[in-house]
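// run 5 | inverse folding | seed 20
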């Protein structure tokens, strides 16, 4: 084993280009490890202080951007150790006592995820605030709701906007679950079989902000389920953002014209002078694919890996970093877009065609004692008759209505009342004034519980 590493393998093996992002966590973990070694009487107090001071100085180099990597640095862990050796000489070699890069990298990576779920959480809360703000401003503004992308029943803008608020509540819970899953300390597991020194792992966990310590050293260095949970939370959040984006893309087309995107959130066309392109929404829609890909990719990497550490596990970091880098700028773009939308209330109102109230008419017939299936059939017949007559449903002649059912006549047109249809849906989660106000209040409560107080 004396031949120098082949340059081709060295290049293939190296991870510093991306795991340099773990520098802060690596230094934090190493400082805590030095303390644990001192408490275990492996290091003298002055050795521990010298190591910790050396690590602080290296951290300062990272902060100032003056940390110089060397071509021989394989990864962040070896780079830090190499630098510590340059500064402290052989004392630096004591830091790795009882530790392996296997428990070290798992610890660093978990710390990174714990810190970064919090950043995404804050950006997602901002988006929720923008959605609630928009919902409150137009809580009762009517618009058509769609199924199969066909006009279905009237809803309101507030109802629609809040329909994108609640998925984010669940996404935030999942992000918190990802943080909790990551919050188990592997350090003190050694390479695979545990550490041979008297390390107080609970104290180490507390110092580093972990909720718990791993129960099994093999499991601690083998598994990356915490990264999968994080990627799942990111992928589903990305899917929700893509659905929101797609809806806004549609609503802002000339054909729908329900909303106009603010100029500051559209881009110009290089050729067609009249165009304002919704690039932000399209990117937010498109990036879901890559987030889902990262989740699927890591799951495939982990599948059937024998324990404990295998170098395959080095493949865990890029998807996680990229998932964060994808979502972190996407969320504020959507927040800004929602916050600057111009609603075209007249267009929304006039898109509520009378056909979207057929359920209300059928419900009315049902309330008169007509079995609902029959009422459905009768109203369907009325729709087809109006089509044959070439008139809008609410303008059909009284005789035509009576030919459908004696219960219908002069007053049939009176059933096409949008506010009444909205108001009828008063059960929790519906469109009535009170139901919408209650929904907005619970959205407000959720935000308040997360430190976001909405004015107004
Ligand atoms: N760069 C490695 C990784 O990211 C660190 C762990 C290396 N461990 C080992 N036994 N080679 O996974």
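// decoded
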């Amino acid at each position: 084993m004396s031949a120098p590493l082949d340059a081709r393998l060295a290049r293939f093996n190296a991870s510093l280009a991306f795991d340099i992002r773990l520098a802060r966590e690596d230094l934090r973990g190493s400082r805590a490890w030095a303390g644990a070694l001192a408490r275990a009487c492996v290091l003298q107090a002055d050795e521990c202080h010298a190591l910790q001071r050396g690590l602080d100085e290296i951290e300062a180099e990272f902060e100032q951007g003056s940390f110089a990597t060397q071509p021989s640095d394989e990864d962040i862990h070896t780079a830090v150790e190499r630098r510590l050796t340059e500064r402290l000489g052989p004392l630096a070699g004591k830091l790795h006592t009882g530790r392996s890069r296997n428990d070290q990298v798992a610890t660093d990576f978990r710390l990174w995820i714990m810190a970064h779920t919090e950043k995404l959480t804050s950006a997602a809360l901002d988006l929720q605030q923008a959605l609630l703000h928009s919902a409150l401003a137009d809580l009762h503004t009517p618009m058509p709701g769609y199924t199969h992308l066909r006009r279905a029943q009237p809803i309101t803008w507030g109802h629609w906007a809040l329909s994108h608020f609640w998925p984010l509540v669940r996404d935030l819970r999942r992000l918190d679950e990802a943080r909790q899953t990551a919050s188990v300390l592997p350090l003190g597991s050694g390479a695979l079989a545990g550490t041979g020194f008297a390390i107080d792992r609970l104290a180490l966990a507390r110092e580093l902000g972990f909720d718990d310590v791993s129960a099994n050293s093999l499991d601690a260095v083998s598994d990356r389920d915490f990264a999968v949970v994080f990627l799942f939370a990111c992928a589903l959040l990305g899917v929700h953002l893509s659905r929101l984006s797609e809806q806004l893309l549609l609503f802002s087309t000339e054909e729908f014209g329900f909303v106009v995107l603010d100029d500051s959130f559209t881009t110009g066309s290089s050729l067609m002078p009249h165009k304002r392109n919704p690039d932000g929404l399209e990117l937010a829609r498109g990036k879901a694919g890559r987030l889902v890909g990262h989740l699927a990719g890591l799951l495939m990497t982990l599948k059937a890996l024998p324990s404990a550490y295998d170098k395959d596990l080095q493949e865990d970091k890029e998807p996680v970093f990229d998932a964060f880098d994808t979502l972190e700028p996407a969320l504020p773009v959507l927040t800004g877009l929602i916050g600057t939308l111009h609603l075209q209330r007249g267009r929304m109102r006039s898109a509520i065609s009378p056909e979207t109230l057929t359920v209300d008419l059928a419900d009315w017939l049902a309330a008169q004692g007509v079995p609902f299936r029959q009422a459905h059939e009768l109203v369907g017949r009325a729709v087809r008759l109006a089509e044959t007559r070439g008139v809008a449903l609410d303008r059909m002649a009284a005789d035509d209505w009576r030919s459908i059912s004696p219960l219908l006549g002069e007053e049939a047109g009176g059933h096409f009342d949008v506010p009444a249809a909205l108001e009828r849906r008063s059960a929790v989660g519906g469109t009535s004034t009170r139901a919408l106000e209650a929904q907005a209040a619970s959205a407000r409560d959720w935000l308040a519980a997360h430190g976001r107080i909405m004015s107004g």
